[in-house]
Design goal:
Elements lengths: L19 H14 L1 E5 L12 E5 L24 H8 L5 E5 L16 E3 L7 E6 L10 E5 L3 E3 L6 H7 L5 E8 L5 E10 L1 E6 L2 E6 L17 E7 L5 E8 L8 E7 L6 H10 L3 E7 L20 H11 L3 E6 L14 E4 L7 H9 L43 H6 L17 E3 L3 E2 L9 E9 L5 E11 L10 E10 L4 E8 L1 H4 L1 E3 L4 E3 L4 E9 L2 E9 L3
Parallel strand pairs: 2-3, 2-15, 15-16, 16-17
Antiparallel strand pairs: 1-17, 4-8, 5-6, 5-8, 7-14, 8-13, 9-12, 9-14, 10-11, 10-13, 18-20, 19-20, 20-23, 21-22, 21-26, 24-25, 26-27
Helix pairs in contact: 1-6, 2-6, 4-5
C-alpha cells in the first residue's frame, strides 16, 4: 500500500486512477481499518437466517467517507452502507431503511436534481463575478457551481483568479429551486464576508447587515442563519444568493443548505422497522462538519439524538449491530445494550462495499484501536488543562499520553488502545528469549501464535516493555513494536521481535541523550494494552 514517495521523491502531474485494481485496494484498506469493538456471537451475519433486515441510521444512506477541511479528494463515486448492503445480500432478504434521526451540524446540500442554474442548462447555480463590490453592471466572469460550499482562495486561475484574489469583489449565485415534495423547507446560509439569500425576490436570510460569529473555521466565521418556509412540490422558485468580500475576513467563502420536509416521527418509524426485522444494522456517527480542522468538539457524545436511537432500537430487537462512522473517540453508554459494535472511522470511497464484506463474513476484521476510548470526557489526559489560558496551553500530562495516562491513573477505559476483535480466536504461546542479554547487545524474543477458531484471520501482536526500577514519572509500559500475521484455522506461526538498547531507553532532557534507567525489565506481549497474553522478565547490563 506504500507509495514509496518518501524513499524516492518525484514530482509529476496529478492523475486519478479509477481502475479495478485501485478500487480493490481502497476496499481492502477500508476493511482492514475497521475495528470490531464487541461481538457476542452476532457477527458475521448469516444471510440464510435473515428474511427481513432493517438498515437504520443517519449515516446509512449518506455516510462520511473522508474528513472535513482542505485536504479532501473528489472521488469518481462513493459506496455507502445502504447501497453496499443491498448489493451484497441475496434476493430472499427484504430491506427496510429508516433514518431514525438527523445528525447534521449544518443544513445539508440542496438536492441537485431540484436545482437549475439561471445561465447554464445544468443542475446547480450560476455564479456571476464582479471585480468590485455592489454587483453592478455586467459580470466580469461567469461559471457553473454545483457545490454547496465555496471557498475563494488560492485555487483559481485566469481572469477568475485575478478577480477573487483582490480585496474587493462580489458575486451573485442564481438559479431555480423546484421542490420534489410539499411541506416545510429549511434554508441555511453562512459566510466569511457578507451574504444574503432571496427566494422569489423576497429576502429570507440576512447575513449582510449583521452576523453572529461561528464556532469553527468550517463555519467561515459566521454562524448559520436559518429560516423555514412552506413550499409546493413542482413549483419553480427563484433562488438568489448575493456575496461581498469582507476586508477583515481571512478567507472568502459561503455555504448554503436546504433541508426538505422531515417527518416528525423519524424515530418511531425506525423503531417499528427494527421491531419487525430479523436483524438490525444501525449506522450512526458524525460528519465532516463535526470533525474538521480549526474546531474541537465540546463533548464526546454522538451528535443529536443518536444515543437515544440506539437505546430505543436495542429495546425492541436483540440482534443489533451498531456501525460507527466517525473519526474520533465517542462515549458509549449504550455499549451493554447491543451485541455487536463495529467502528469504521471515515474509511474512504469503498465504505459501503467494505462494510458489507465484513458484516457478512467475506472479510474478517483485523483492525486495532489506535487511540484509547475513555468512558467519559473527564477521564482524558487534557481535561483539566484544555483549552488553556489565552494562547498558552500547558502539556501537563508530559509522557503520560494516550494509554499511558490511563495506566498511570488506573482509569478503566471503555475501549483500550490496541483493542480489536476477530471472527476467530488466537492463542499466544510463552515468550522465548534466544540468548541472555549481556553487555548491551541486542537480542531476539519470539512466541508462537495459533489460530484456534473456525475462520482464517489476521492478528496484530503488540509488544510492550516496562522498566521495573523506573521512577514514578515514567510510564507503566510502552508499546515498542508490533507484528501483523495471517493464519488459517489451526495454523501456528512464530513471531519474533528484536530488542536493543534504544528499546529500553528514555530521553534524558538534561543530558540531551537516550539513557537506560533500569536494569530489570518486563516484556509484555498481548492483543491490546489491557489484554496481555504473555510476559517475561529479563536483566539488562551494559
Amino acid at each position: 500500500i506504500l507509495s514509496g514517495q518518501l524513499d524516492s521523491p518525484t514530482h509529476s502531474d496529478e492523475y486519478y486512477d479509477d481502475s479495478p485494481k485501485i478500487r480493490d485496494l481502497a476496499r481492502r484498506a477500508a476493511t482492514e481499518g475497521m475495528v470490531l469493538v464487541k461481538n457476542q456471537g452476532l457477527l458475521p451475519l448469516l444471510q440464510s437466517s435473515i428474511n427481513k433486515l432493517a438498515v437504520i441510521g443517519p449515516n446509512a444512506e449518506q455516510s462520511s467517507v473522508q474528513g472535513g477541511g482542505s485536504s479532501t479528494v473528489k472521488t469518481a463515486y462513493e459506496s455507502h452502507p445502504l447501497s453496499g448492503i443491498k448489493k451484497a445480500i441475496g434476493q430472499h432478504i427484504s430491506i427496510r431503511h429508516e433514518i431514525g434521526c438527523l445528525n447534521n451540524k449544518f443544513l445539508p446540500p440542496a438536492d441537485l436534481n431540484c436545482m437549475r442554474a439561471c445561465h447554464h442548462d445544468a443542475p446547480g447555480l450560476s455564479i456571476e463575478y464582479f471585480r468590485e463590490r455592489g454587483m453592478e453592471g455586467t459580470a466580469d466572469e461567469l461559471e457553473l457551481n454545483q457545490k454547496h460550499k465555496i471557498s475563494w482562495f488560492g485555487a483559481f486561475g485566469g481572469d477568475l483568479g485575478d478577480i477573487v484574489s483582490g480585496r474587493n469583489f462580489s458575486a451573485r449565485l442564481s438559479g431555480v429551486f423546484t421542490p420534489s415534495e410539499s411541506g416545510l423547507h429549511t434554508f441555511g446560509l453562512m459566510s466569511a464576508g457578507l451574504s444574503r439569500m432571496f427566494l422569489d425576490g423576497q429576502l429570507i436570510i440576512d447575513n449582510w447587515t449583521q452576523q453572529e460569529p461561528g464556532d469553527s473555521f468550517y463555519a467561515f466565521g459566521s454562524s448559520e442563519r436559518r429560516t423555514s418556509l412552506q413550499l409546493e412540490s413542482g413549483r419553480e422558485y427563484s433562488l438568489v444568493i448575493e456575496y461581498e468580500k469582507n476586508d477583515d475576513a481571512i478567507v472568502s467563502g459561503l455555504q448554503y443548505g436546504i433541508l426538505p420536509p422531515v417527518p416528525a416521527n423519524l424515530m418511531d418509524r425506525a423503531v417499528s422497522a427494527a421491531k419487525d426485522a430479523d436483524a438490525v444494522i444501525l449506522v450512526v456517527g458524525t460528519t465532516a462538519e463535526w470533525e474538521t480542522e480549526g474546531n474541537d468538539r465540546s463533548d464526546m457524545s454522538l451528535p443529536r439524538q443518536q444515543g437515544e436511537l440506539i437505546k430505543r432500537i436495542s429495546d425492541v430487537n436483540s440482534k443489533v449491530v451498531v456501525v460507527v462512522n466517525a473519526c474520533g473517540p465517542i462515549e458509549m453508554p449504550w455499549l451493554d445494550c447491543v451485541k455487536a459494535v463495529l467502528y469504521c472511522w471515515f474509511p474512504g470511497q469503498e465504505f459501503g462495499n467494505a462494510l458489507a464484506d465484513v458484516l457478512f463474513g467475506k472479510s474478517n476484521p483485523s483492525g486495532k484501536m489506535p487511540v484509547t476510548f475513555p468512558k467519559r470526557i473527564e477521564d482524558t489526559p487534557t481535561y483539566a488543562t484544555y483549552p488553556g489560558d489565552g494562547h498558552r496551553l500547558l502539556y501537563d500530562e508530559e509522557l503520560f499520553v494516550g494509554y499511558r495516562w490511563y495506566d498511570h491513573q488506573n482509569i478503566e477505559p471503555v475501549v483500550p488502545f490496541g483493542h480489536g476483535l476477530s471472527y476467530t480466536s488466537f492463542f499466544y504461546g510463552p515468550i522465548i528469549i534466544d540468548k541472555e542479554p549481556v553487555g548491551g547487545q541486542p537480542f531476539k524474543v519470539s512466541l508462537d501464535i495459533t489460530n484456534t477458531g473456525d475462520y482464517a484471520g489476521s492478528e496484530i501482536i503488540q509488544l510492550y516493555i516496562r522498566g521495573l526500577q523506573e521512577a514514578a514519572t515514567s510510564p507503566e509500559k510502552e508499546l515498542k513494536s508490533y507484528r501483523k500475521i495471517h493464519l488459517s484455522p489451526n495454523e501456528t506461526k512464530q513471531v519474533s521481535f528484536h530488542i536493543d538498547e534504544r528499546s529500553l531507553a528514555h530521553w534524558d532532557c538534561s543530558e540531551q541523550t537516550w539513557r537506560v534507567n533500569s536494569s530489570e525489565f518486563e516484556l509484555l506481549i498481548g492483543a491490546s494494552s489491557r489484554d496481555i497474553r504473555s510476559r517475561i522478565r529479563f536483566s539488562w547490563t551494559e
